[in-house]
Amino acid sequence: MNTRVLVTGATGFVAGHVIVELLDHGYAVRGTVRDLADTGKRAHLAEYATRVGGDLEFVAADLNADDGWSEAVSDCTQVLHVASPFPSAPPDNEGELIRTAVDGTLRVLRAAADAPAVRRVVLTSSIAAIAHGHLDDGIRTEADWTVVERSPAYQRSKTLAERAAWEFAESLPTVRGLELVVVNPGMVLGPLLAPETSTSHEPVRRLLAGAVPGSPRVGWSVVDVRDLAVAHRLALETAGAAGNRYICAGEHVWMQDMARVLAAEYGPRGFRIATRALPSPLVRLVAVFDRGLRLTVPALGKIERVSAARAHRELGWTMRPVGVTVRDTAESLLRERIVPLPGKVASAPDGRRVPRDRGMRSA
User: Which of the listed CATH numbers 3.40.50.720, 1.10.3720.10, 3.20.10.10, 3.40.720.10 matches domain 4-188+224-249?
Assistant: First the structure.
């Protein structure tokens, strides 16, 4: 297969798995990175490409600057815009978070529209652009949009960025023929490809490390990163996907349920995993002093109800059981020494000690 696909934010958790999926299916891949000189963060991808005989190259491009994007999309027939800011705590400047998400998305789309060979762009959005700010707890579908006036900064950033993408695509002349497909994942868990976590790993990391006395009443509609990578490939390959959004997420899972899965698997191995529920008033009180925990407060007691029926029906997409995803996430945290074995201290591959508790972050 000679098709070259651009994947933005190549060193990110989701983008890395998307690149692996594309290489496994014969695509030539070009990934964007902020700094070409920083080879360490992408070494695992380069090694994988070599091992499977894949065609993988990297170019420099930053969502905050115009430079490099026209070169990045040149000779590509498809673009996967995966990169987007994902804060681990409430941002100091909400406007900056939103501006980066919206402007970065439009930079990629403009470059794609100016590149004659590009025929389809797949945008990684989120159910954060669908399921928040509603006054009822109904099941959300691709017809729904997050109510930005009643939503936190991250949800607003994802919603406004996706809306800007659709408006841009609709403004293009029909003769251009540039197709837009949007993938809306839930909370992304699954195994690491490199010894660096994403924000969404924090609940599992903290539970497995024994860094929390219990679980806040928070939960998520979870998707396995490996299944999400497949969804991105299917969004590229399915002719009828053009012009559509696709929710990729399963049933709501409480953090306490994740704790029980982990306790059953790792309790017999010496890990002390708290399975009790933490009272929401206590969580709100502690959040006054714990900046990372503040992202959790707006989600207390809320259930994410979304339907992935369209992705199942139109893309032929499937998901693995969430228990498998939670356990595989934990195994990778142990394998990469992000979480220590009982009685040991976690360390990075270069021998540095890893702090046992880096603060709760919500995904």
Answer: 3.40.50.720
What residues does 183 pair with on adjacent strands? 124, 246
Rounded to whole angstroms, how far apart are CA atoms 201 and 261?
Answer: 15
Q: What is the mean pLDDT of residues 125-140?
A: 94
Would you call 105 helix, strand, or coil by DSSP? helix
User: Which residue, 15, 22, 26, 121, is CA-closest to 77?
Assistant: 121
pTM (2 decimals)? Answer: 0.91
User: Please, is 301 exposed, middle or buried when counting C-beta atoms within 10 Å of its C-beta (0-12, 13-18, 19+)?
Assistant: exposed
How much is the pLDDT for 20? 98
> What type of residue sits at position 30?
R
pLDDT above 90 for 103? yes
Can you give the pLDDT at residue 346?
54
Half-sphere exposure of 129 (CA within 13 A, CB side): 27
Q: Judging by beta carbons within 10 Å of its beta carbon (0-12, 13-18, 19+), is residue 116 exposed, middle or buried?
A: exposed
